[in-house]
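Example record used in the benchmark description.
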Amino acid sequence: MQDEEIQEATASEPLSLDEEYAMQQSWRQDPDKLTFIACLPLGRESEVVRAGSGDSPDCMLGDVDLFLTASEEDAVIGEVELMIAIKDQQGHGYGRASLLAFLRFIVEHEQGIMEEFERMSSGGRGIEGLVVKIGEANQRSIGLFGSVGFERVGEGGNYFGERELKMGREWRERAKVAWRRGESAAYAEVEYRGVDVR
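Model output (structure tokens):
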């Protein structure tokens, strides 16, 4: 990701391709992280995605991530990040679709996510809430997260110029309300074959 505007919007540093692959490997192996790569829709009914086809670099749009942290009270908080890195694909609903699919995955697989997390941490029995930190200038992203149930925390941004939004203990129900509005009707989990991780 070499685009300075996207780096600023996502508080990211430029990485080489090898560094990106190393980071992806870390995210897969570390039990406190979960990342999905957002790709263009397959455009057809499919029950299997094959490596190098629907996930080839020309199909990739960005990513959506979850970082788990145990607080001093043993509550587990999930920080969500979303990036659609291809500028001409922004504003077409891919961010919303990726976020809603990701939230649905977290709700439906929370037990497995927490079992993996608890192997490295003594933190709680479930995710107590979700938080997102967004640069104050990124009003589109603030609006997107607000539209699916995240609420602003406090007035203005933090020390780093980020606006914090959160969903507390009711995060599961808020996510389900968004699905019921039909916004994730096209969500389907499919098999992935031929993983080639460096």
